[in-house]
Every structure is written in C-alpha cells, then in structure tokens.
Design goal:
Blueprint (H helix, E strand, L loop, with lengths): L20 H8 L8 H16 L6 H13 L3 H13 L6 H13 L3 H13 L6 H13 L3 H13 L6 H13 L3 H13 L6 H13 L3 H13 L6 H13 L3 H13 L6 H13 L3 H13 L6 H13 L3 H13 L6 H13 L3 H13 L6 H13 L3 H13 L4 H13 L6 H13 L3 H13 L6 H13 L3 H13 L9 H5 L2
Length: about 500
C-alpha cells in the first residue's frame, strides 16, 4: 500500500461564508482541559447545534469539536460524531482522518486505523508524516514496536521526513521494551539527519536505562544532554534519582536533588518518593523523614505512595504509635489508604505479634471495599503460621479459594510460604487440590497432589477423597479407579459416601 504513494496532496483552503456569532459562543463554552462526561455531553450538543446552522460550517469547524473530545480522551464519542458527519455528507479531510486514526489507536483497534489509511488513499489524498506518526504511536502503545520500527523505516525510504515527535514516539517504544541499544542508535541517527533531540528524547532514554538498571549509561546521557545546552526538567532528574536510589546510590541522588534546586527545577512528589524510598531501603530513615518534612515545608503534597513508604519503615523501626499517627495524618489529608497501606499495617502488626490488630485491619479492608490481593493474604497467613495459628492460616487460604476461585493466587502463596521457610502442611495442600479440582484444572490438581510427597507430606484419606472426587466430576473414571487401588495398596480405604465413587469399588 505504501509504495503507491507518488504525489503530494495539497489541502486547498475551504471557502465558506462568515460564521455566525453563535458558533464562537459554542466553541467558547467548551473547556479544552475538562475531561468529564458533562463536557463530552456539551460537545455532542454543540455538534448538533452546528448541524442546524445555515449555512452549515465547514469540516474545519467540526474537526475542532472532534479535537476537543480527543483532549478529553472520549475517543468513542469522536468516532461516533465522525460517522454522523459522513451521514449528513460533511466531507472529511485529512485532519479528520488523522483524528480518527488517533482515536482507534488509543482504543487498541489498530485494524480500523489502517483501514482509515486505506480510505485516505482511496479518496486520492496523501497521508502526511503526522498520519504515519499517529499509526506508529498506535503500534507502540499496542506493544508492536518491531512493526512500528518497520513502518518508520518504510516511510523514511519513501521520502517522508520523520519529525521530532516521530523520533520521540519510536524512542519511547524501544525504551519501553528495553531495547536501549536501538534507542541510543536512533538518537545518533536523529542528529545525523538534522533533527535535533530535545529534552523529551533524552529523558525517555534516561528513564528507560534506569528502569533496566543501566544507571551509569543513563548518567552519561544526562551529561551529554547538558553538554548540548539542553536543560533537564523535573522528569529527567526524577528518573535519574530513582535509578540511583535503586542501586543504593542515595548520596549521589541527594547531590542531584541539590543540583535541581540550584537550577530552579522544583522537585515533585515522584522525586521525593524515590529519595524517601531509597533512604528507607538503605536504613537512613532519619534522612527520609527530614525529606518528608521538607516536602511539607515546600508545599509538595505527599501522596499515598509517600505515606505507604513511611508507614512501612516506622513499623520496621518498632515505632508503632508513630506509624498509626502517620496513617491518621494520611486520612486527615484526604488520602484514601490502598491495598499497599493495609498490607503494610498488617505486616507491621504481625511483626510485633499484634495478630488481633492485624486481623482487624484485614476485616476493615472489606468494609472499605478494598480487595486484598495475594500479597495481603500472604502476609497475614505468613504471620499466622509463624505464631503457630495454623487453623487461622488455613481459614484464610479457604477464603482465597472461595473468592472467585482464586486458585492460582493460593498456589503462588504456597510457593511463597515455602520460599520463606514456612512449610505448607497437609491441610494447605488439600485446600489447593480441592480448589483446582472444582474448576477445570484437574491436571494441575493431580500435579499438586503428587508434589505433596516431594515436600515430605504423605497424602491422607482426605487428600485421596478430594482428588478422586475431582476425577469423577470430570468423568475420568480410569484415573479415579487407579487412585482407589492406590489407596487400597497403602492400606487406607476410608472413602466418603458417593454413588459414583462406590461403583468403582
């Protein structure tokens, strides 16, 4: 399709009569930064007002409404309005099609985006670099970075000159999948082709390098950015600070923070969170709290992540009352605790043997509509096991399985308990086998059944009954019969009453 491009399309200016004052009143009433459903409804209403105008405004004015919807991220409504435009014979232009490709890309409907490209060709229009960049961005968002690079190379070969935004899109895609060598190569290619990288290009690469633990290389790129006279922004600094903290270079990170301040680049909550987390992780909790106070003094509002880091650290330091005060402060500032907050509280109380409080927090989660995840269950079950409360641990495991059949979560939990040196007992295995056999995972149930012995736990009558009943439910009478004979051979024949079961004896 791309090889059929042979000429440039010049969009001729439309000639139409002056627009009535009502049109400008309509557009003026729409806030470009408002992304609520109310604003979308206003745009839709404005669209229908434009349709009723005589003479009807040109497609350019309708495109402004489509653009407003895109700014609100209401892509579905933009597509709907474009269909209505065509139904009343408002001829779309290339800008309209670019908007639609963008909408389909964000909705992960790339096939529709490429169909729009085909329509552009069919109408005798020629796409611009903006059209292709929008498609490239859609491919990158969908994780099809190799296809995005392929399209980039094809359009370059056809004579299209990629702009800065095109390069930034590709660099972001490559960095996201960890292909940092290709991202840096593209950075060099940009310069060779006369397209100067900007702070976004450099920051994207620095962030990608840091996320893949290539912090030294990221620092080299940071110095290169400066040598080219480009001022790093808060995102550049925050990415590098986060990378340094992840490799315990918190002193160097603090130097970078001071450099930010010297250059009048104001740190944000992400900058402080990275530093506070790095300091806590390095057991420098006093410095972490000094930074927290600096945040408050400079009117940088801490978020749920900030409080979660500090609550966790306070518990580890045995400062239970201060940790509780921190949670109160968090709620007082209107910040809603999340699953990480609750999990930190449960872990903190468990660490200090306050199991009643830990369990109470777990119960509060349900009342606050905060669904515990596998980590939450793992923490509480872990502490119950360490406190020899096996009955409570098993009860929680059963609860996991009852909630939407969370068998995989339960299996992950068993693996974690084993890693932590807490040997799962026969009750744990029986619960998992029963959960798997009640679903569509009999093969997995059987593997867990056999894994019991690998863990030094011999299956009991309950284990056999659960797995045999599972095979009966799935009409696998052969394996059920084999297991019954295995029970006999081991001198164990306490079988539960079940008609299908008894027929095999």
């Amino acid at each position: 399709m791309l090889t059929s491009i042979s000429r440039r399309f010049l969009l001729s200016p439309s000639s139409h009569s002056p627009l009535p004052p009502l049109f400008y009143q309509i557009l003026g009433s729409i806030s470009p930064f408002h992304n609520s459903s109310v604003a979308s409804t206003e745009v839709m209403a404005s669209f229908h007002q434009l349709l009723r105008m005589k003479p009807r405004p040109s497609v350019i004015e309708f495109n402004k409404l489509l653009s407003a919807l895109v700014r609100m991220k209401d892509f579905q409504s933009a597509i709907l309005l474009s269909k209505q435009m065509e139904s009343v014979r408002i001829k779309p232009n290339l800008y309209t099609f670019n908007i639609l490709i963008n909408c389909f890309s964000h909705l992960e409907r790339l096939n529709c985006g490429f169909s729009i490209l085909a329509k552009i060709f069919k109408l005798g229009l020629e796409p611009t670099i903006i059209t292709f960049t929008t498609l490239i961005n859609g491919l990158c968002m969908d994780g099809q970075v190799d296809d995005a690079v392929d399209l980039f190379d094809k359009i370059s070969a056809l004579g299209y000159q990629p702009n800065l935004y095109t390069y930034n899109v590709i660099v972001k895609g490559l960095s996201k999948i960890g292909n940092m060598y290709a991202a840096i190569s593209l950075l060099k290619r940009m310069t060779e082709r006369g397209c100067e990288p900007d702070v976004v290009t450099y920051t994207t690469i620095i962030d990608g390098l840091c996320k893949h633990n290539l912090v030294t290389e990221a620092f080299d790129i940071f110095m290169k950015l400066r040598s080219r006279g480009i001022s790093p922004n808060v995102i550049t600094y925050s990415s590098l600070i986060h990378g340094l903290c992840c490799i315990s270079k918190w002193k160097k990170a603090l130097v970078l923070l001071n450099d930010m301040l010297d250059r009048n680049v104001a740190p944000n909550v992400i900058t402080y969170n990275s530093l506070i987390h790095g300091l806590c992780w390095s057991n420098n909790w006093k410095e972490a709290f000094m930074l927290f106070n600096r945040m408050l003094d400079t009117n940088v509002a801490p978020d749920v992540v900030t409080f979660n880091i500090l609550v966790d650290e306070l518990f580890k330091e045995g400062m239970i009352v201060k940790a509780e005060c921190m949670v109160s402060m968090m709620i007082g500032r209107g910040i809603v605790p999340d699953v990480v907050t609750y999990s930190s509280l449960i872990d903190g109380y468990g660490l200090h043997g306050l199991m009643r409080k830990a369990n109470k927090v777990f119960q509060v989660m349900a009342k606050k509509d905060c669904e515990p995840d596998v980590q939450t269950y793992s923490i509480l079950i872990n502490w119950f096991c360490k406190r020899k409360r096996i009955d409570a641990a098993v009860e929680l495991l059963e609860e996991m399985l009852d909630k939407d059949g969370r068998v995989e979560d339960a299996k992950d939990l068993i693996a974690k308990l084993s890693t932590d040196g807490l040997q799962p007992n026969i009750y744990t295995f029986n619960i998992i086998i029963d959960g798997l056999s009640r679903g569509k995972s009999m093969d997995k149930a059987y593997r867990v059944f056999r894994k019991m012995e690998e863990n030094g736990i011999l299956p009991d009558n309950c284990s056999y009954n659960v797995i045999i009943l599972g095979f009966l439910r799935h009409k696998d009478f052969s394996r059920a019969s084999q297991l019954i004979h295995e029970m006999r051979d081991k001198g164990s024949l306490q079988i539960i009453e079940n008609n299908d079961f008894l027929k095999l004896l």
